[in-house]
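ugh finaly. both done.
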Amino acid sequence: MNDTNQTQESTEMIRQTYAPIASAMGIAMIFWGILCHPFGISIWFMSIAGGGLLAWALFSWMKEVCHEWSIQDES
């Protein structure tokens, strides 16, 4: 009985983040811009915006991971 209480107390829920979804969207935007270029559709800004979104998502995701690791190290 004691073991069950200890495992429930020590298990914490991971905070939700939008970084994985944003990185997937950034990758899709990059490829959308690349694939539409040969057809004469000039949407190079879509690839640039996708690259920026991907960079932001990876930065925020890694920042969250480092923050979680620092909390675990303090425990």
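ok and the 2nd:
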Amino acid sequence: MFTAFVKRSVLAGVCAVSLLCPATAVLAQDDEGAMFDRVTLADGRVFTGNIVEETDDSITMEIVQFGMRTKQTWKRSLVLEVLHDAVPDPDAGKKEEAKPEEIKGAAGKVLYDPNDTRHSVYKIPIHGPVGLDSHTRIIRMIWNEAMEARAKTIILEFECWQALGQADIEEYRNFFEELKREARSKEVKVVVWVKQASGVALAYALMFPDVYFQPDGEMGGGWVINEQLRQMFSDPSVRAKMISAWVGICRGMAEEGGHDALLCEAMIRPEMVLSMRYEGDHPVFQADTSGEVVLDANAGEEPENTLELTAKEANEYGISRGTYRTIDDLMFALGYREYRYVEGNAEDFAKKWADGWKDALKEYGYIRADMELIDTYNEPIERRIAKRISKLREIQALMKKWPPLELFIDPLQIHYEIDTLKKELRNINNQDRPGGGGGGTGGGGRPGN
């Protein structure tokens, strides 16, 4: 048997091993973590490590033995087999899994702490007039920070209102639908917490199924839609069609959130008659007074009042899932005794935005005042026209940075003014050219004209 091993070792060019080596294979890792060499001795023992030297008579391997790195040298005559790069490093090619790192936002505030495993909560303030203080651009900016903070619950705090003309209703409906889709894709729960939702804003709040109220919360004021459409359209039939169209849009938003469309309509149409009955604990509404409870019994062709809901009524009528004074109370109701409230930059962002567009509106006034002074300058008219165009370009840049300005400044009017001035400038330049028709008194390029 031993003779057979010797013959095999001669054919393979094998070597001997020290008597101090253990009788089991010892694993040694390459410094570079690539592959391992393997030596099989004639007596059956196998060693894995890195061969560091080979001669005609011996072979030296670096191995790890008893936790220590050491070298062993064997004569080739007592080795059965030598294999280079025979054993792959089990960790070779594996990328170390990236460990989540702490994420900080503006002003160094910690948005995400990988060591804090509590349920994370982020509150987005939707305050002030929609389309101005609460514009899609600033809401999206704050929403993105909530996503960066890996919030699992986002609270939309409604304390806002909207009249027709303050913002494009369908644009905001699509915007909130986009947020809902994104939340679903990332398994984020979104709840609405109402302090005030007036005018068209009530329909945005109703787009979400999980609506809660603050103790002094209120929802209503939809009469503004009806009133503004009355002022815009004097023809009764046209006005009725327009009111029906806008009511239909708002009803659709309420239905999307799982709320009763009749209840939404009663907060918009002053002439709406609404009553309610219960089927078990579930309220059912009907557009007449035959229910158990009459909510709104307005009569007449153009009554002034629409349905207004307090926190208590919103709860009774099935819109609200509860009334809570603090976020602690709200989160406890949602099933979280412990949670992490993300101290992000939402309030700072919202305030800077509200102040920013108002300052930009003032800046617009200053630019217009400067434009009036330009005509008093004692310089060629083409220079004055060029300066007026430059000022109008400043207004365009201001409007691009602060979209709420479009509610006060018509962008098409600015474009028309620029186009008119450019044509005027071209006419002056053509007159100043030889044969251009100039030559009248007070040439266009002279000072003071």
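summary for the 2nd one i guess: The CA atoms of residues 153 and 334 lie 10 Å apart.
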